[in-house]
Amino acid sequence: MQWRSLVVGLVVLRLSLSCVLWLTFGLGPGVSFGFNFHLGFNLHKLDLLFREDKGTESKGKTWSQQIQGKRYEQTASTCPQVGQQPPPQRSYLGLFQGNQDEYARRYSSFPDSLKTKMRGMARDMFYFGYDNYMKYAFPKDELNPIDCEGRGPDVLNPSNININDVLGNYSLTLIDTLDTLLVLGNVSEFQRAVRLVIDTVSFDKDSTVQVFEANIRILGSLISAHILLTDPKHPFGEVGFEDYDNELLHLAHDLAVRLLPAFENTNTGIPYPRVNLKTGVPPDSINETCTAGAGSLLVEFGILSRLVGDSTFEWVARRAVRALWKLRSNETGLLGNVVNIQTGQWVSKQSGLGAGMDSFYEYLLKSYILFGEKEDYRMFQSAYESIQIHMRRGRESCNEGEGDPPLYVNVNMFSGEIMNTWIDSLQAFFPGLQVLNGDVDNAICLHAFYYAIWKRFGALPERYNWQLQAPDVLFYPLRPEMVESTYLLYQATKNPFYLHVGMDILQSLETNAKVRCGYATLHHVVDKSKEDRMESFFLSETCKYLYLLFDEDNPLHRSDNKYIFTTEGHVVPIDKRFRERQWSDLGPCEDGALSQTQSNHWPEDLTKFIHVSVSLQCNRIPEEQRYALPLKSVYMRQIDHMVGLF
User: Fold this and answer.
1) Active site: which residues (predicted)?
2) Bridge partners of residue 290, in order along the sequence
C-alpha cells in the first residue's frame, strides 16, 4: 500500500507543478491525443521570456506563435529605471544547446562501405518494384503491389480523376522508368523495354487524361529515352540498336498532337486540364485549372519543338506561361493556385510552393537553363523575389541569429497574409530548386525542416500542420521530392549529412512500405496502414534519386556533358542544339510578360544556375560547412523540437 501512496503523491506533485508553470508562464507539458505530438507550439511562450523586439510582425523572425496579426508586446515592467543597467538578454536558442555532439557523431561521416551497401539497397528496391510490375502488371499502367495485379483506368467511374488523370491505358510505368534503367547501368533491359514500348504502345485510346500528367510522365520519358538512344555524347555507353528509327520520337510527337486540343477555344490561352486522346477536350470539361498544371509544359514541349522542327508545341506552352504571368498580383507579384481559363479570374487565391504551384516555378528556371530564353529567367527572378518577401517567415539567416527557422507558408496572393498553417509534401522539392538557383543556405534550412518531419513519421504526410505539429492529410504515396532535394544538396555540398538522410529514407521505405510485390502507398503515416497502389514516379524518380545519391561514379556524375532532370526526374542534356531553332520568333509577347531580345548564345553566367555532376555551388558554401554539419546543431535541435521529436 505504501508504494501506491507514493505513486499517487508523485502524480499530484507533478500536476501541481504543471499548473503553477502554466499559470506563471504557460510552460506546462503539451497535450497529446494519440499521435505523440504536442497541440500547439510552446516556443512562443519561451520567447515571451527572452524576447528582444517589441511586437514581432507576422513576416518577421517568428512564425510559430501566430497566424496573422497576433502580436506580443513587452509590458512597462520590463523597462529599466533611469540609471539602472538593463538585465542581460537571454537567447531562447540556449534551450536547444543540449548535447550537440550527438548530431555531429551521427551525421559527420559516412564510410564508403556503407555507401556501397546503400547503393545496392536502392538498386534492389528499384528492381523489386520493376520486376514485379513486369511480371504481374504489364502492359497495364500500374502495379497493385499488395494483390500483385495490374491497374488501368477506372472505366466504370470516369469521375475518379485520382486514377484516370494519370492512367491512360498506355503502359505508364514501363514508359516512365526507361531512363532509370540506364541510370542503373542496365543497357540490355533498357533496349528490351524500348522495343516493348515500340511494339505495344499506342495513344489511339479512348482515355481522358490530365494534360500535365501525360506530359511529364509519358512525353518527357519518351523524349529523354530517344535522346539517350541517339545522342553520341550520352554518358551510358553504346545503348542504341541498329533498327531503331526514331520510333520513340514519333510516339512523343503523336501524343503531343493529341494534347494540343487542350489549348484551343480558351479565351486566355491557358489550356484545359484534360483531353480525350481520341476525341479531344470532353464536352463536359471544366474551365478551371491549376497554375502548375497549365504552366509546367514548356520543358517537354520546347524540346519536342526543337527535335521535330515545329514551333507549335513550344509556342502554345509559352503562351500559357505568359498568360498566367500576366494574371499575377500587381501588389505582391504572386500568382494564385487555380484559375478560370476563360475569364482569367483566380478561383483559388492561395499562393504557395506546393500542390498546384510547385513545378511552375521549377520550369521557369529549367526552361532558361535549357533554352536560354532570358524572358524565362527574368520571370523566375521576379517570382523568387516575391516568394522571399511574402511567403518566407522566420529568421533572416538559416545558420545565424535568433528566431524560428525559415519556413515558406501559404499566403493570399493579393495581400501576402497567411491563409492556413499547413505545408504539403510537394513543397519539399523547393530546396532542390534553391540549389539550382544558388541559394544553398535557404535550401539547407527548409530541407532540414522536412527531414525532421520525416524522422518523426518515417514518411512525409501529404499535408503537415506546422502550428499543431500534426499531419492534416495523412497519406504518403512514395513521393520523390524529399529525395530529390537531398540528392541535389549532396551534389552541391558533398556533406555526409545528406547521405544519412538518404539512408534514413531508404530504411523507412523498406520497413514501412514494402509489401509482397512492391512498395505500397502509406494510407496513414502514423499507423502505417497501406493502400494497394505503387505510382510510376516511385520507380522513375524516388528510386533513381536514391541510387544516384550513393553512386558517386555514375556516368551522369563523371560525364563531361551537363544534364538536368525534368520535374518527373527524366534525364535531358543541356545542349546547344536546344538553344537553336529554325523559326524566327515564338509569337508576340503578351502584355504583362517580360520580353527581351531573344538570344541563341550561351550566356556567360549560365553555369552558376546549372546543377551538374560536380559541385558548382560549393563556392557558395562557407569553408567550415563543407566539413561540419550543414546546419548548426543548435538549429537542428530547434527544428527537431518544433516538429515534436522531443
Assistant:
1) 213 (proton donor), 358, 462 (proton donor), 481
2) 338
Q: CB within 8 A of 374, min separation 6: which ones?
A: 368, 596, 597, 598, 599, 603
Supply the DSSP string of 287-333, one letter for each residue: SEEEHHHHHS-HHHHHHHHHHHT-THHHHHHHHHHHHHHHTS-TTT-
Cα→Cα distances 286→257, 262, 566, Å: 21, 11, 27
Beta strands in 320-474 (DSSP E): 338-340, 346-348, 350-351, 392-393, 407-408, 411-412, 422-424, 463-465, 470-473
Distance of CA 199 to the CA centre of its chain: 34
Which residue, 284, 371, 382, is CA-closest to 335? 382
At residue 347, φ and ψ (nearest 5 deg) are -85, -40
**Cα distance between the two ends of the chain:** 34
For residues 21, 27, 33, 37, the Cα torsion angle rounded to the nearest 10 degrees is -150
Q: How far apart are alpha carbons 568 and 481 in whole angstroms?
A: 10
Burial of 129 (0-12, 13-18, 19+ CB in 10 A): buried
Question: How far is the CA of 551 from the CAs of 104, 115, 490, 514, 613, in angstroms?
Answer: 24, 8, 12, 23, 11
Do the Cβ atoms of 520 and 528 come closer than 8 Å?
no
Binding residues: 567
Sign of CA dihedral 282, 287, 288, 289: positive
Judge whether 102 and 500 are in contact, CB under 8 Å. Answer: no
Rounded to 10 deg, the angle between the 497-512 and 481-493 helix axes is 160
> What pTM was computed for the model?
0.84
Strand, coil or helix: 386:
helix
Interval 378-384 mean pLDDT = 98
CB atoms within 10 A of CB 103: 21
Binding residues for Ca(2+): 567
Question: Tell me: the pLDDT tens digits for 324-336?
Answer: 999 999 999 999 9
- Residue 456: partners with Cβ closer than 8 Å, 6 or more residues away: 37, 643, 644, 645
Residues 286-316: b if buried by 16+ CB within 10 A, e if exposed: ebbbbbbbbbbbbbbbbbbbbbbebbbbbbb
**Residue 372 near residue 601, CB atoms below 8 Å:** yes
**Alpha-carbon distance 591 to 418, whole Å?**
30
All three cell numbers of 51, joined, read: 524576447
Residues 284-334: tens digit of each pLDDT = 999 999 999 999 999 999 999 999 999 999 999 999 999 999 999 999 999
pLDDT in tens, 404-462: 999 999 999 999 999 999 999 999 999 999 999 999 999 999 999 999 999 999 999 99
* Phi, psi angles (nearest 5°) of residue 338: -130, 135
Angle, CA 289 vertex, CA 284 and CA 295 arms, to 5°: 135
* DSSP letters spanning 199-234: HH-------EEEHHHIIIIIIHHHHHHHHHHH-TT-
On the 0-12 / 13-18 / 19+ scale of CB atoms within 10 A, 349 is middle
| Residue numbers annotated as active site | 213, 358, 462, 481
Q: Which backbone phi and psi does 376 adopt, to 5 degrees?
A: -65, -45
